[in-house]
């Protein structure tokens, strides 16, 4: 494929554009979600949807805005932007509606105080009044008085209200002065209370956000809003499914597969496409947004960015653009990060109380794993409702959805470690010179000494290291920070998966860890022999990717002593 072909493929990707009409007008790829949008909008029931950032909520809201403003027929001298989409034949409602679209994240932007937010919200309400030719009386002074006047002036069943990022103000003022948080809470309570008081005026209300929690006044103001966030009917409404990627991104798939497999384009057959999709799924698929786990979802932002890279690079696109949010820093990092590292135990899954999951506490007190789920770092590991769910379950099991998030989580810890645990950060920094020298000389004693210095820093009280998975993760994390190199955990090779593998200058280092709960000589030597045997039998690290030197080492970690107690270069002597 020629350079100009890739340029034309990239031009069709809807990166950075969430306006539905603009996407259709500019012939950008639009994955047709309108059958689900029809199901969403065909009745008058107010609905709420939570999804992580960068999963297509804003495009969904924009599509609804276009639908209720203009319907599915052409207007202003052009064809309908819904021409050829599923909803064109389904939508029968051609009423003229007063559409009010509020994006609370945009309104929050550059607001120093709650008064600033209220002023910007009031301006938007007055803009709607001017657009709808409604005169607001001069005696209406406050934002809620003006909004109430606007709602009262419009006919019954005539208003469509769309609120994007409803939770942005609560997050924005979460750690400001206590009075500010109380003020924004009161303001939002008034806003949503007016929706309840004027419920007959609305043809449709749709609200999106990232989080859902008990002090979100949208859910407690008595509006009978239906939370569809985990409804299987709408599991695919944001993000992409595998079949959608195959249908809408055929040319992008072929081009990217040719780069990955280093083959001419005419050699990319359906089997190669499926093989490539499997690789893509390992990195970006795996989200379950419905309680029954009925459909796996790919990260929309990650897929679009992957296809926009000519060299088809697997990277942490979602995290790099929006993964480390203000909310995450304000709430998640109040927790003990070794508690959070429990994610890497028990096959990288955790259990949370079902009640806490379904009706989370207010933001300052929310379970950190529930927050990680809502922000997009975790997904359901299995259903908690439906035929496949365990009967009478009181817990929800969560896990990382894919490799992108596993790698992003590591970046998250690394980026925040200096402020989170400055002592450990300094220890790791000081280890760099000695560890690199130990690798260069293949001095295993010095190498282990430096790693044990890192493990020795972990506080004893309450910080139990009780399995190999956590040892692997912690060791990998230490090595990434010390060496500033990529360290792969359980990399897939032809005959197995080494625990850790990385390159440092001219050396490829392979580590096979074994965990023992005690510190007995007999147990440690048996585990050490097994580790060596595993390395040699599977020929770990001896691939085309290896560097000039290959250093394969076996380590035994004692849970009792909380350090490496036995080690050797892999051989069976």
Q: How would you characterize this protein structure?
A:
The mean pLDDT is 89. Helix 11 crosses helix 12. The chain starts with a helix and ends with a strand. The longest helix is centred in the N-terminal third of the chain and has 20 residues. The protein has a five-stranded parallel β-sheet. Strands 9-10-11-12-13 form a five-stranded mixed β-sheet, sandwiched between helices. It is an alpha/beta fold. It has 23 helices and 13 strands. A hairpin with a 2-residue loop joins strand 10 and strand 11. It folds into three domains: 204 residues, Rossmann fold, CATH 3.40.50; 157 residues, no CATH class; 149 residues, no CATH class.
Summarize the structure.
By secondary structure, this protein is an alpha/beta fold. The chain is built from 23 helices and 13 strands.
What keyword list fits this structure?
single chain, 573 residues, alpha/beta, Rossmann fold, 3 domains, five-stranded parallel β-sheet, five-stranded mixed β-sheet, 23 helices, 13% strand
């Amino acid at each position: 494929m020629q350079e100009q072909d890739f340029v034309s493929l990239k031009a069709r990707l809807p990166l950075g554009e969430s306006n539905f009409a603009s996407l259709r007008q500019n012939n950008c790829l639009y994955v047709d979600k309108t059958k689900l949008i029809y199901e969403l909008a065909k009745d008058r029931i107010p609905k709420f949807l939570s999804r992580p950032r960068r999963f297509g909520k804003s495009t969904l809201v924009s599509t609804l805005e276009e639908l209720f403003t203009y319907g599915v027929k052409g207007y202003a001298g052009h064809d309908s932007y819904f021409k050829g989409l599923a909803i064109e034949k389904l939508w029968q409602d051609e009423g003229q509606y007063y559409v009010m679209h509020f994006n609370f994240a945009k309104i929050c932007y550059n607001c120093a105080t709650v008064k600033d937010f209220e002023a910007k919200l009031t301006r938007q309400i007055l803009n709607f009044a001017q657009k709808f030719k409604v005169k607001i009386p001069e005696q209406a002074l406050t934002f809620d008085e003006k909004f109430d006047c606007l709602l009262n002036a419009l006919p019954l069943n005539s208003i469509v209200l769309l609120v994007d990022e409803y939770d942005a103000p609560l997050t924005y003022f979460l750690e400001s002065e206590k009075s500010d948080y109380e003020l924004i809470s009161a303001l939002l309570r008034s806003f949503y209370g007016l929706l309840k008081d004027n419920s007959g005026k609305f043809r449709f209300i749709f609200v999106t956000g990232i989080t859902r929690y008990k002090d979100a006044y949208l859910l407690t103001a008595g509006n009978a809003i239906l939370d569809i966030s985990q409804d299987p009917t709408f599991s695919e409404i944001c993000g992409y499914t595998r079949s959608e990627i195959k249908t809408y991104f055929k040319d992008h798939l072929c081009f990217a597969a040719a780069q990955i497999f280093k083959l001419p384009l005419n050699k990319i057959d359906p089997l190669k496409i499926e093989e490539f999709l499997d690789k893509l799924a390992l990195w970006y698929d795996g989200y379950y947004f419905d309680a029954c786990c009925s459909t796996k979802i790919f990260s929309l932002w990650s897929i679009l960015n992957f296809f926009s890279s000519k060299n088809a690079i697997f990277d942490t696109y979602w995290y790099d653009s929006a993964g480390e949010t203000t909310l995450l820093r304000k709430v998640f990092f109040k927790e003990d990060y070794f508690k959070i590292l429990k994610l890497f135990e028990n096959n990288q899954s955790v259990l949370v109380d079902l009640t806490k999951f379904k009706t989370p506490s207010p933001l300052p007190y929310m379970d950190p794993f529930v927050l990680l789920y809502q922000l997009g770092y975790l997904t359901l590991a299995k259903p908690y409702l439906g035929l496949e769910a365990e009967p009478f379950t009181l817990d929800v099991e969560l896990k990382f959805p894919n490799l992108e998030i596993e790698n992003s989580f590591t970046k998250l810890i690394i980026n925040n470690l200096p402020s989170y645990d400055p002592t450990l950060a300094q220890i790791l920094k000081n280890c760099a010179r000695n560890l690199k020298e130990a690798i260069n000389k293949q001095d295993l004693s010095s190498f282990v000494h430096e790693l044990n210095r890192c493990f020795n820093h972990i506080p004893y009280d309450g910080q139990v290291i009780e399995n190999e998975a956590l040892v692997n993760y912690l060791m990998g994390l230490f090595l990434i920070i010390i060496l500033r190199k990529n360290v792969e955990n359980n990399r897939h090779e032809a005959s197995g998966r080494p625990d850790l593998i990385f390159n440092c200058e001219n050396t490829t280092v392979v580590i096979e860890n074994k965990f023992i709960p005690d510190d007995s000589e007999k147990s440690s030597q048996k585990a050490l022999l097994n580790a060596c045997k595993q390395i040699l039998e599977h020929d770990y690290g001896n691939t085309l990717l290896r560097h000039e030197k290959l250093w394969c080492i076996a380590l035994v970690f004692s849970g009792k002593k909380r350090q490496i107690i036995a080690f050797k270069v892999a051989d069976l002597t």
